[in-house]
Amino acid sequence: MSWTKVLAVDSLPVGSRQVVKTGNHNLLLLNHHGQLYAVKNSCPHLKISLKKAKINEDGALVCPMHRSAFDLKTGAVTEWTPWPPLVGKAMGMISQEKALSVFDIKAEDGSIWVDLTDN
Ligand code: FES
User: Fold this and answer.
1) Of 19, 35, 80, 86, which one is least surrounded by beta carbons within 10 A?
2) What percent of the chain has pLDDT over 70?
3) Are the C-beta atoms of 3 and 114 separated by less than 8 Å?
């Protein structure tokens, strides 16, 4: 475990999100219904920011570019929207399903901590 303090608890109230840069990591922190989540702030194939991604009724983070969705706890793909066939072979190669990187997160001593081990 490599817990790193990333933010004051008060800075992430229920329903909010924050992008935090720590070391080489660009993290998206979310407080969804009082549950904290930390994910890599880039989608697994095009590396776009997920800061504006909505959370669907299943608690999955939905890509702002198309409708692919990722489980907030595990990062697993819950819905995948492949590129249209007309987009071409190159886009097809980068559209394979890949899980989103997620991090363990906790609130302790008034701060939010993220475990950056192996990420
Ligand atoms: S653009 Fe990467 S998941 Fe949608």
Assistant:
1) 86
2) 87
3) yes
Q: How far apart are CA 20 and CA 56, in angstroms?
A: 23
Instruction: Give the domain ranges of the chain.
Output: 3-115
User: How many of the other CB atoms lie within 10 Å of CB of 89?
Assistant: 7
66 in contact with ligand 1, CB cutoff 6 A: yes
* Segment 51-80, tens digit of pLDDT: 999 999 999 999 888 778 999 999 999 988
| 72 CB near ligand 1 (under 6 Å) | no
Model pTM score:
0.88
The CATH number of 3-115, from 2.102.10.10, 3.40.1010.20, 3.40.50.150, 3.40.30.10, is 2.102.10.10
